[in-house]
């Protein structure tokens, strides 16, 4: 972090031989405690300058504490040392290990393009730090931030802050306009709360009423896939009253699930998804199906268990009926090969395709 000589070789402030403190024999914890307690001013100054023999994951947070403190004699050299942190050391640490205190300091005070980009690219970086960074990013880093569609969807204030950047490029301005048009609600008040499934039909039909409805449906013409359990075809099942179909969604057989998940009434399709256990292959087929209601695909895209399966994620991204905001968040998970194919796929929404194009250019290198 500094070109100054090692602690053991540095002369004391008086010039009379080496510095009296040789902290190498102490544990890292005791060194940090001595610095923070203020009992050893010379050791605190060495820490501020980045000269204590501590690994980056220990020294950098310590320096951030000093740079943020009230002691100006320590804050100034600590801030200077942090700003001059070698990218080889800092990029890996900020991208993977750094805690919120360190990330926050660099988001506010950092100047190194390499270190700022490491923060921008970090998948789990708190979104408020990206808001903090946006107004002061260089043109090159503006493009890196624009690539973080997942973060922008979660925190639209990022593009609001980026729009205030005095050096905003025409490319960034155009992308901000596209995001506002295609990805983000114009008004948070317009975002409807999740629809309850059970409250719409509080009076569940009795077993007798269900059986009577099934008998009536059997008199209708057969058409489409037939469910072995009920003996009804897809067309006959669609003929059933909605409350009866809703009841059939609970504990449905695989064949019945396959029919009901395609029901034109999204209430039925979503109830099937919520009230049954599906295999990975079933979910993949649902995610690929372009006749599935987008709300069903949206629910699949929110389920962590299913999002650990690459084939399901890939199917969701390829399906043009998957909500665009969720598809864009999933694109970074694609392999380089699939990014290339997605970038050429004219059947998927433009924001998804353009995201795949940019990520492909980055990842293929």
Account of the 3D structure:
Mean pLDDT is 83; it is low at 1-26, 187-194 and 197-202. This protein has helices spanning 28-37, 41-48, 56-67, 72-83, 87-97, 100-109, 113-121, 127-133, 139-146, 149-154, 157-163, 170-182, 207-218, 234-239, 242-248, 254-260, 266-274, 280-288, 294-300, 304-307, 310-318, 324-330, 336-343, 350-363. The chain has 3 domains: 7-16 and 23-188, no CATH class; 200-277, no CATH class; 291-365, no CATH class. The chain has 365 residues and is mainly α. The protein contains 24 helices and no strands. The longest helix is centred in the C-terminal third of the chain and has 14 residues, at 350-363. The chain is 58% helix and 0% strand.
Brief overview:
The protein is mostly helical and 365 residues long. The protein folds into 3 domains: 7-16 and 23-188, no CATH class; 200-277, no CATH class; 291-365, no CATH class.
Features:
365 residues, mainly alpha
Would you spell out the secondary-structure blueprint of this structure?
Elements: H1 28-37, H2 41-48, H3 56-67, H4 72-83, H5 87-97, H6 100-109, H7 113-121, H8 127-133, H9 139-146, H10 149-154, H11 157-163, H12 170-182, H13 207-218, H14 234-239, H15 242-248, H16 254-260, H17 266-274, H18 280-288, H19 294-300, H20 304-307, H21 310-318, H22 324-330, H23 336-343, H24 350-363
